[in-house]
Amino acid sequence: MTRSDITEALEKKLQVTARLDDENLHAIRSMPISVKQLAANQPIVREGDRSSSCCLCIEGYVVRSKTTPSGHRQILSVHIPGDIPDLHSLYLNVMDHDLVALTDCTVGLIAHEVLRDLVRYRANIAELLWRETLVDAAIFREWIVNLGQRPSSSRMAHFVLEMFHRLKVVGKTSGNSLKVPMTQQHLGEALGISIVHVNRILKELRGQGLMEMHRGVITIHDERGLEQLGEFDRLYLHQNPAL
DNA sequence: TCATTAACTGAGG
DNA sequence: CCTCAGTTAATGA
Predict the structure, then answer these.
(1) Long-range Cβ contacts of A200-207 (<8 Å, 24+ apart)
(2) Across all strands, nucleotide nearest A191 (CA–C1')
(3) Which residue minimizes Cα–C1' distance to B4?
């Protein structure tokens, strides 16, 4: 892996709304990053941990989750290349949830001091990271609405479209298909529905000609139909609408 | 191990 | 009475 592979997705995502000038781009490209390979299901940081670095997803997927005392896990968010899922740990010292590798993946650990210096001395980058954090919060708000107010078929449709649009920004979709390397168990944990019901919903969506999922690859057959079912409006992702 | 399906159940509209 | 979704259990890939 070359140095530009490491920050490629991050650069794409940061520049969704505004170009970075050469100097700031160079600052991002020359951040010291320690690259680590992780196996699926390997914890990155756990609730209660004090971390001294932030995790940049380079390849593969990562989830944030919380597990209740009775053992039920809620997946809070799914992270893809270019995301920094624990950016908040820069200022919140103790983790309030777990960060776990969903698939085998490559992550880059960026020391807090490095990021703090970037934020202190480069207003442009500070604004982009601030923006990332706000969009992250916007996505959480949408997830709350999704889990609390939509029937499960709409939840699934909404989730798939969100992943589709987020993956598109970093160039990880191909035509109408996207990788969502989650088992039906994972989908259930993300959407708050039982595994058997996940299976029923997938069958229903397939039957309606909306989408299909096979071994972690989703093919969208009817994007408009999915948007209607999922009441999906991509505004909350705050992407460049031209993309 | 993961995916699929049927059958049954209860909540709630 | 109908729809939605959880549980259980059996079975297939």
Answers:
(1) A201/A152, A201/A153, A201/A156, A202/A156, A204/A153, A205/A153, A205/A156, A205/A157, A205/A229
(2) C5
(3) A199
